[in-house]
Amino acid sequence: MSADEVARRRTQMGEAIRGWGAIPGAVSEVSDGHWLLLSGAPSPDVNLVLVHSSDGEVLEAALATVNRVGAPSLVCLAGEASEEGLASSWQAVGTMPFMQADLAAVPQGVDQRVRVAGPDDVEVAVDLLMEAYGMDQVVARIAVEPVLTGLTEGSSDMRYWLLVEDGVPVSTVLDARAEDVITLWCMGTPERFGRRGFGRALLAHVLHAARQDGMTEGLLGATPAGKPLYEATGWRTVEEWRLFVNAASVQFA
Questions:
Q1: How many distinct structural domains can be found in the chain?
Q2: Is 141:126 a contact under the CB 8 Å cutoff?
Q3: 151 vs 14, 87, 136, 226, CA distance in Å?
Q4: Residue 137, Cβ neighbours under 10 Å: how many?
Q5: Last residue of a domain, which of 70, 95, 120?
Q6: Range of the domain at 29
Q7: Is residue 247 part of a domain?
Q8: Domain finish residue from 39, 62, 95
Q9: Residues 149 and 210 in one domain
Q10: Over the stretch 64-121, which tens digit does the pLDDT of each residue have?
Q11: Which of 81, 85, 160 has its CA nearest to residue 127?
């Protein structure tokens, strides 16, 4: 993948979740050198910034927006972006693999246990994210409710999926699309439902649906818990994003 193509794919990650910017008080920006989605909630897990421009003024402007919103955030630096503009209050917490998959080459299949979540599933999806990630209820609700109640419609194409086993919801994932790309977020299976193939089955079904809808490529930022599944199903790491937080994150410590 060329440098220009990688840059375009980074930008599509931000474009795909622009719908979250419809949350009252939220701020969303997407440019060639950065994107950000600041929900305003009190957690870096729902206030995201990616800077991949070598121009220090791009990072400076993004940080000024973070300061104006006043919410704890996760700043990701990619490509030629420099961390020189980050104050000492920003703590390095490692890296996150930015992963890509050709949808024609990854496992896919229809699973009758999987369905698109709707407005009546808000509490179900909130509970799954709380248990899978250790999220606070307020934070999990910010991630779920705007999507399932239609607040994001018209801004971006986003939906949650559920895998329900014997009447019990056991796994969830958010699919957000931009052009020919499906991006994946918030994939979670609580530990008590782990090692039964639920995550793999859910992923295969969602990617099959995306392929049927004309999507050709998948993108995601992997958590440490999710990376082994993605690697085992044909996803490859394009690059590592350097991560910085100014408050505790439940996903990155």
A1: 2
A2: yes
A3: 17, 35, 21, 28
A4: 12
A5: 95
A6: 3-95
A7: no
A8: 95
A9: yes
A10: 999 999 999 999 999 999 999 999 999 999 999 999 999 999 999 999 999 999 999 9
A11: 160
